[in-house]
Design brief:
3-stranded antiparallel beta sheet; 64% helix
């Protein structure tokens, strides 16, 4: 299979993983996310969809940074705190969502592309970053609310790059290992049934 095809499939799979993770977050913690309005350091009405994105990003250990208020002399009066909304809302199970989704999607992609071994599977799995990172950037910009939102640098580096590269590689590795084990088993089975010529 050509490298271009691998890149395209990886990008599509990465985008699908992001959307699936966000959807699972909305289904399992959407109600909890609405409590961010007026709770903790935020103190204002926040659209539910933005709060859900914050929670999803924080499931990647990104953190939501509060708006900064500066005085006339340029000094920071208040704000700028990094809040992990998953802990704030006591929904720590969400830390598993991006991990499980990325591993499963990358493993499925590697299997569909018939990876030959674990190393090949890892290289396929890591291509998820090509679709995951752009949506992380889009979600980051879209969810900003009067200066409050996911920490930009942490979102891009941790959620956008480290998570899809690492857990994509893990899923691809597992698919490659399983595929190689299955091939070895099939080869052994076929060898056991080969006719003996005398």
């Amino acid at each position: 299979m050509s490298r271009v095809s691998t890149v395209i499939r990886g990008a599509v799979a990465g985008a699908a993983a992001f959307i699936l993770g966000l959807l699972v977050t909305f289904i399992t913690a959407g109600v909890a996310a609405t409590r961010l309005a007026g709770e903790g350091p935020f103190g204002e009405t926040i659209p539910e969809w933005k709060a859900t994105i914050w929670v999803f990003y924080d499931a990647h250990f990104v953190g939501t940074r509060t708006a900064e208020l500066f005085g006339p002399d340029g000094s920071l009066w208040s704000g700028g705190e990094l809040v992990l909304t998953v802990n704030l809302l006591e929904i720590e199970f969400l830390f598993l969502v991006p991990v499980v989704v990325l591993v499963l999607v990358s493993a499925r992609l590697a299997s569909l592309m018939e990876c030959s071994d674990a190393r090949h599977g890892m290289s396929i799995g890591m291509t998820l970053v090509l679709g995951y990172l752009p949506l992380v950037l889009f979600g980051l910009l879209a969810s900003m609310h009067f200066g409050t939102g996911p920490s930009p640098l942490r979102a891009l580096v941790i959620a956008g790059i480290i998570y899809p590269v690492f857990f994509g590689a893990v899923g691809g590795f597992l698919a490659g290992q399983f595929g190689r084990a299955s091939q070895s088993k099939n080869s052994s089975s076929n060898g056991d049934h080969e006719p003996v010529i005398r």
